[in-house]
Amino acid sequence: VLQIEIKNTSLKRNLWFMFELPKLVNKLKPNIAHFSFPIPFLNFLFSVPVVSTIHDFYPYEKPENFGFPNYLFNQLFTYLAVINSDGIVCVSQETLNRLQYYFPKVYAQGKNRVVYNYVDFENTQPKLPIKLNLENRPFILSVAQHRKNKNLHLLIQAYAKLIEEKRDIAPSTQLILVGSTGPETGNLIELIHTKSLGDRVLLTSSIDDEQLCWLYQNCQLVVCPSSTEGFCLPLAEALYFSSRVVCSDIPIFREVGASDCFYFDLDDDPVHNLSQAIINALKQPRPQLPPDEFRFSKTTAMTQYLEFYSSLF
Fold first, then answer.
1. Which of 35, 124, 167, 298 satisfies CB 3.0 to 4.6 Å to 118 for a cystine?
2. How many angstroms separate the most distant Cα atoms in the chain?
3. Exposed (0-12), middle (13-18) or buried (19+): which is 288, by Cβ within 10 Å?
4. Which residues belong to any copy of the Glycosyl transferase family domain (predicted)?
5. If you ran DSSP here, which 8-state letter would residue 285 be given?
6. What are residue 90's DSSP bridge partners?
7. CB-facing half-sphere around the CA of 308: CA atoms within 13 A
8. Mutual orientation of helices 270-282 and 152-165 as an angle, nearest 10°?
9. Beta 245-248 vs 87-90: how paired, if at all?
10. What is the pLDDT of residue 73?
11. Closest Cα to residue 302, out of 110, 31, 35, 118?
12. Whole-angstrom Cα distance, residue 62 to residue 56?
């Protein structure tokens, strides 16, 4: 592991990616350089093949996630990463489809591959998150950043509806939202107070893997209500722990969740649709998924990466 000192500003960081990173790679002389997210770079500065992983096309599809003018820079970085890469790894077929839409010429070159993100909790021991003060109370879980496309406001409204109508969930059921703060944090807090749910909805970001494991294993169900995603690792993690999962009916969730999830429609009345899906899911037993059938394993991903690397030479 090499420690690199870069001033923590966007300009300094991206200039380092553009001009200093190629020097470092050429000095180390690897067989291949693989960047795990889109960075600005120029292919001719590298002496080895370069691969980039593309997780999504949010800069093009959800500019509000970044704000102005940041989304323009993120569009530029994604563009430079795509056109300068010798190979592109997409984290889902849905993301690959978007690559074809936005960059048809790059897609037509055929130097791309879908490799799913993997879940790796093999050496992680579950630990009760004491600071949440759950006290054996049932809870619904969602893991997502506070961004508009995550639709956490729909989940809060659906949860409030179920509590108000006293429908099919225990009165003591809490809602736990795990995720880093973002552009929607203020709106979510305001909605929680408006619905008088301050003592029922818990927002937390400082959760380690051990505590997250415990939450997945002990929740009533996991909800993923996003309007768009590149992959959605929390969905794969929930499936790994055989949690009940309710998610919006969008192509990427059908790809990742297949028949193992309960889906709700984002059209018409999404709050009603989500609350009904939660009720339906809670009526079903917790699923049992044999470990050897899990699709998002580290071994599978590593094998696919090696095969793709070999195809570039």
1. 298
2. 65
3. exposed
4. 131-283
5. P
6. 54, 114
7. 25
8. 70
9. unpaired
10. 95
11. 118
12. 10
Mean pLDDT, the chain cut into blocks of 10 residues (313 residues total): 86 95 97 97 98 97 90 96 98 98 98 97 94 90 96 98 90 96 96 97 94 97 98 97 97 96 97 98 84 84 97 93
In angstroms, rounded to a whole number, what is the distance separating the alpha carbons of residues 110 and 97?
Answer: 13
Are the C-beta atoms of residues 35 and 57 closer than 8 Å to each other? no
Q: Report the C-alpha gap between 179 and 150 in whole angstroms.
A: 11
Burial of 311 (0-12, 13-18, 19+ CB in 10 A): exposed
Determine the Cα–Cα distance for residues 96 and 116; give it in Å rounded to an integer: 11
Which pair of tokens denotes residue 23?
Answer: 């020097």
What is the spatial distance between Cα 252 and Cα 248, in angstroms, rounded to a whole number? 10
Question: What six digits make up the tokens of 101?
Answer: 């839409």
- Bond before 183 cis per omega within 30 degrees: no
Nearest-CA neighbor of 277 among 113, 162, 130, 200?
162
Residue 224's nearest CA partner among 188, 179, 268, 172 is 179
Number of CB atoms found within 10 A of residue 293's CB? 6
- What the block records as the tokens of 312 is 């570039």
Q: How far apart are CA 77 and CA 96, in angstroms?
A: 18
**Would you state the pLDDT for residue 1?**
78
Strand partners, 33: 50
Give the C-alpha separation, 236 to 91, whole Å. Answer: 12
Domains and CATH numbers, the chain: 10-118+299-311 (no CATH), 130-293 (3.40.50.2000)
Structure tokens at 124: 């992680």
Task: Write out the two tokens for 119.
Answer: 């879940």
